[in-house]
C-alpha cells in the first residue's frame, strides 16, 4: 500500500520492520531507546528486537500498561532514565505501544533537552488510526486527559499489521470507533463499507483509508484552528464519559466505547440542531448500539459529566463546543451547546 | 528607543506598562494569570497591578523565589492551579520575574492544553538581556539545568527599566555577564563601551544594544543548529560551575558569576586552540576578575565539574562542545575539547 506522507514524515504500511531498520541505519543517531509497556514488551518487542539486535546502541524503557501510567510521575521517571543513560540531543525514542506510549513517549521526547527525535510503532488499532497522525502528545493530570502536552511530529510511523492480531476484541472495538468516526465526518462510502465488513479484525486497506482521511484533515489545519475540529465529533461528550468512567468504574470504558456513546449523543444533537436527517441518526444509533455494549448512564450522573465537559480543552470562554454532522460524511464545527441540550442528548442515550 | 522585533513578537523598551495594558485590551483573552515570585510579588507586582486593576479577569500565581523552584513539582502545582482556575486555551500567562519565572512560566504555558499564550516582563538584568529573546523555556531535573523544556515564543516582552533599580548589586552583576558576552562574541565596540561605563546600573541604551545582538543571532538560527551556538560562549564550563556550586555551596554562585568563570576558561581555550590574541585573553581575564569575585576552584573538584560537562545538552556523541573566540567580537562554534584541555583551562582560572 502507498506510503502516506504526513506533516514531513512518512507512514509505512508495508515491510515496516525493514523500513525501521533502514531508518535507524541511515539516520546516525547516537543512541536509541525503545519505550514500551508490559503488554507490548511481551507481545511486540520480541518481533522488533529480532531485527534490531544488529545494533548495540539501544536501551529499553518499560512502564506499566494502562491510562493510569500516562501521568507526570512516569514522565519524570523516563526523563531521569534518559539522563542516567546519557541520552544526548542526537538520541531517538521509538514508541512501541498504544496511545499511552505514543502520547507520553512523544511528550517526553519533545521536551527532553527541548526536543529529541521520536518515531511511533503503534500496536493497537486505536493508535494506528488515531495517534499515528496529528502530532499531538500529552499526559493526564488529576484524571484530566491530555491536559498537558505539546504539538510535535514524529520522524516516521511504522504500521505492523500482525500486532493487531494479538489484541483482545475489546481493544479492536476501541480503535474501531475512530475508523467509524472518520467515515461519519468525511466519507460516507467508508462508513458504508465498514458496516459490510468483518469488524472484529478490520483489514489493512480499511485502516489505510481511515488514516488517509485523518491525515488530510490534519495537514490542512495542524494546530486545530478550524477544520481539524471535525475530528472532535463524539469527543466532547465521549471524553467526559471516558473520564467519568475512569474515575468511577472498576473496569473503566475503553476510549472507543466512550466515543461511541459520545457519537450517539452528538448525532442526536446534530439531528436537533444541524439538520442531520432522521434516517442518518437512526443508522448511526443502530450501528453503534449493535457494535458496542450499553453503558448505564443515570440522570444523577449527568451533573458530574457536565462538570467534566466544562473542563474540556476545546471550550472557549466557558462555552461547550461540539462538532456536529449535517449528514453522514459531512460535518459542521464550533457549535455551542447549552447545558439543557447536552443533558437531553444523554437522556436519548440512556433511554435506548 | 526602537521596538525590537523578535521571532513574531515585539520587545518594548519605552512606556512598557502602557503597552502591556493596550496588549491586554486588544487581545481579548478570556482570562490572564500573573506568574510571579515572592520578590517580584513584593517589588514589581504593585507597579503592574496599579495599571491592570481596571481588568477583573485575572489571578496571581506566586511561587518561592530562587533556582530551587525551577522544578517539575512547581510546574505540576501551577498546572493544577490553572485547572482549578478554569484556564482555557484562550488564557494568557504574564511572567513577571527573572529567569526562573520566565523559563518555568514559558514551559508551563507552552504545554498547558498543548500551549497557551504568554508574555514576559523580565525584572532582572539577566532576564532582560537573556531570557527575553530566544524562545527557550525550561526546568531543572536532579539539578541539571533546563534538561526539560520547549522552544516557544512569547507574544510580547515588556522591559521596565525601573525594576532594575530595586535589584541588589549581585543581581546586576549576574546579568552583566551576558551583556559582556554579547560584546565578546559579536561587537567589540559594545565590549569597549561597557568597560568605560558605570556597570553597577547599565543604561537602557546598553541593554537595548545587547538585546539587539542576541536577537539578530537567534533570528538567524532559532533552533540552535549553527550560529546560535555563539551564545554558548562561556557556558560549557560556566554551566558546569553553576550546577556544581548549586549542589555544593551554601550560597551558590549566581548565573553570571559562573558564566564569568566560564568565559575566562573558554577564552584561555580560545587562546590555545583558536588563535585568540594574547592581548585579548589578558583584557578579558583582567576585566572579568576585576568585576567578579574570585571563586575557589580546587584540583579535586575538577572531576565533578567534568562529569557535569559530560551531561551538557550541547554535547553530541559524548564529546564536549565549546564556542571559542577568534578575537574580541568574533566567534567560532563546534569546537571539541578534550578532558585535558578542559582541566588545564580550569587550572588557568584557579591560578589567577
UniProtKB/TrEMBL annotation, chains A, B:
Protein name: 3-dehydroquinate synthase
Highest taxon of source: Bacteria
CDD domains: DHQS
Record carries keyword Zinc: yes
InterPro entries: Dehydroquinate_synthase (IPR050071), DHQ_synth_AroB (IPR016037), DHQ_synth_fam (IPR030963), DHQS/DOIS_N (IPR030960), DHQS_C (IPR056179)
Cofactor names: Zn(2+); NAD(+); Co(2+)
Molecular-function GO term, any one: 3-dehydroquinate synthase activity
The EC number(s) this enzyme carries: 4.2.3.4
Organism: Mucilaginibacter segetis
Chain ranges of the 3-dehydroquinate synthase N-terminal domain: 61-172
Biological process per Gene Ontology, one example term: aromatic amino acid family biosynthetic process
GO cellular component, one term: cytoplasm
Function description: Catalyzes the conversion of 3-deoxy-D-arabino-heptulosonate 7-phosphate (DAHP) to dehydroquinate (DHQ).
Matching Pfam families: DHQ_synthase, DHQS_C
Domain 3-dehydroquinate synthase C-terminal intervals: 175-315
Keywords: Cobalt, Lyase, Metal-binding, NAD, Nucleotide-binding, Zinc
Amino acid at each position: 500500500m502507498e506510503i502516506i506522507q504526513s506533516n514531513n514524515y512518512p507512514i509505512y504500511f508495508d515491510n515496516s520492520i525493514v523500513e525501521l531498520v533502514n531508518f535507524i541505519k541511515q539516520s546516525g543517531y547516537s543512541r536509541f531507546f525503545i519505550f514500551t509497556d508490559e503488554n507490548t514488551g511481551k507481545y511486540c518487542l520480541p518481533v522488533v528486537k529480532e531485527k534490531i539486535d544488529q545494533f548495540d546502541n539501544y536501551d529499553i524503557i518499560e512502564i506499566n500498561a494502562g491510562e493510569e501510567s500516562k501521568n507526570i510521575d512516569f514522565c519524570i521517571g523516563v526523563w531521569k532514565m534518559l539522563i542516567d543513560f546519557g541520552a544526548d540531543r542526537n538520541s531517538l525514542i521509538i514508541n512501541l505501544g498504544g496511545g499511552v506510549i505514543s502520547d507520553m513517549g512523544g511528550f517526553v521526547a519533545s521536551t527532553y533537552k527541548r526536543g529529541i527525535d521520536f518515531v511511533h510503532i503503534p500496536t493497537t488499532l486505536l493508535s494506528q488510526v488515531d495517534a499515528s497522525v496529528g502530532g499531538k502528545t500529552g499526559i493526564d493530570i488529576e484524571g484530566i486527559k491530555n491536559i498537558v502536552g505539546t504539538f510535535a511530529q514524529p520522524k516516521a510511523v511504522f504500521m505492523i499489521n500482525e500486532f493487531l492480531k494479538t489484541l483482545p476484541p475489546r481493544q479492536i472495538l476501541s480503535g474501531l470507533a475512530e475508523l467509524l468516526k472518520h467515515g461519519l465526518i468525511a466519507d460516507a462510502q467508508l462508513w458504508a463499507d465498514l458496516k459490510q465488513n468483518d469488524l472484529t479484525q478490520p483489514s489493512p486497506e480499511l485502516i489505510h483509508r481511515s488514516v488517509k482521511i485523518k491525515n488530510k484533515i490534519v495537514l490542512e489545519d495542524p494546530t486545530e484552528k478550524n477544520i481539524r475540529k471535525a475530528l472532535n465529533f463524539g469527543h466532547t461528550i465521549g471524553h467526559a464519559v471516558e473520564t467519568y468512567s475512569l474515575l468511577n468504574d472498576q473496569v473503566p470504558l475503553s476510549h472507543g466505547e466512550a466515543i461511541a456513546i459520545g457519537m450517539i449523543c452528538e448525532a442526536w444533537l446534530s439531528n436537533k440542531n444541524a439538520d442531520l436527517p432522521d434516517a442518518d441518526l437512526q443508522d448511526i444509533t443502530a450501528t453503534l448500539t449493535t457494535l458496542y455494549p450499553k453503558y448505564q448512564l443515570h440522570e444523577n450522573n449527568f451533573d458530574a459529566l457536565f462538570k467534566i465537559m466544562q473542563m474540556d480543552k476545546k471550550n472557549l470562554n466557558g462555552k461547550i463546543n461540539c462538532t456536529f454532522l449535517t449528514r453522514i460524511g459531512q460535518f459542521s464545527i464550533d457549535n455551542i451547546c447549552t447545558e439543557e441540550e447536552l443533558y437531553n442528548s444523554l437522556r436519548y442515550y440512556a433511554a435506548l
